[in-house]
Amino acid sequence: MASLTSTRKPADRPVTGIADRLLAWYDAHHRDLPWRVPPRELASGVRPDPYRVWLSEVMLQQTTVEAVKAYFQAFLERWPTVQALGAASTDDVMKAWAGLGYYSRARNLKACADRIAARGGVFPDTEDGLRALPGIGAYTAAAIAAIAFVRPAVVVDGNVERVITRLFSIAMPLPAAKPDIRAEVERLVPADRPGDFAQATMDLGATICTPRRPRCMLCPLRQDCSAILSGDPEFYPVKLAKPEKPQRKGAAFVAIRNDGAVLLRKRPEKGLLGGMSEVPTTGWTARIDGATGTDAAPFAANWRPAGSIGHVFTHFGLELAVYRADVDFTAPPQGFFWSRPGWINDEALPTVMKKAIEAAMPGSTQKGPHKRKA
DNA sequence: CATCCGTGGTA
DNA sequence: TTACCAAGGAT
């Protein structure tokens, strides 16, 4: 049975063949992704563009492949090189990132692009060099080093953790099991194809060794897998229960000028939705609820109820009462600005704010990466 | 090591 | 519907 401690020694079991079987499966069943150089092309000497590898890896942090695709294409089209991204304004990058979440990534992306551009557009080709850059942590540094620079880096993401804990029946809960997982990956990674090995493990985790209902019958590693013998591979990886999310309340105020312009303001650079734009709201990021009526409106106006919207953040849920007022003043109050009429989807608005605006102005917003008009 | 940080999809 | 979770990083 699985051990709860680290007494298992990595050298106890032979691993010959695991990487080979995994890579053979990858050669035949890999996903075709916009940022990826497929194994056949890689073998014939095609090298991945480090800019694309980096951009995709940052976007993929805690974000699904399907959500990333459209944003990756939009960024690449608008900023084809890291120098181009370095020449962009942080504000434009935030606007382009709107809707993808974890907005500090966008700020760090721009900061990192500046650093790379200052080096002539050349990325560091070592794990340590990459790790020192903003927005690049242990995982991303290893992934770029392995995929773009063929370094034998130990790439461990959520997929790898799941595959490895099942393969070796590691029952120690995460994150305590991370050192053991790293040790197992370290002895599996092949020196000649570290990038493909990393991507193969992630593809396996995404399509076969899934969190729920893994398709073990189709798995190229079923003969190597310890968890499958237990009859309940889904048991792994073991994670501690997460604390339940508190529910907060507040109000949002959508002021609309007669030409359709919406009154916005910019949020502080740090913290929740840092650096993004918003319609004025009552407090709701504090531990306590904000006011839900018009008492706390940013200024006097004919505020009318426009329904309410719900939104779920990482660590709390939010219900926002939405009010709309049609106003006739031209000069924005101190700290506010008017969005360009009809261009609300071009602002750096997080999804929760688009929901509020949509409630006040049905049909005005749309999802996905913003595409600039000509 | 724990907490904070978005969003959308799935069973 | 609730609950989980996705190619994590910064502090």
From TrEMBL:
PANTHER family: ADENINE DNA GLYCOSYLASE
Family: Belongs to the Nth/MutY family.
Organism: Mesorhizobium hungaricum
Enzyme class: hydrolase
Function recorded in the entry: Adenine glycosylase active on G-A mispairs. MutY also corrects error-prone DNA synthesis past GO lesions which are due to the oxidatively damaged form of guanine: 7,8-dihydro-8-oxoguanine (8-oxo-dGTP).
EC number(s) given by UniProt: 3.2.2.31
Domain HhH-GPD intervals: 59-207
Entry's Gene Ontology BP terms: base-excision repair; mismatch repair
Co-factor remark: Binds 1 [4Fe-4S] cluster.
Protein known as: Adenine DNA glycosylase
A single GO molecular function term of this UniProt record: purine-specific mismatch base pair DNA N-glycosylase activity
Keywords: 4Fe-4S, DNA damage, DNA repair, Glycosidase, Hydrolase, Iron, Iron-sulfur, Metal-binding
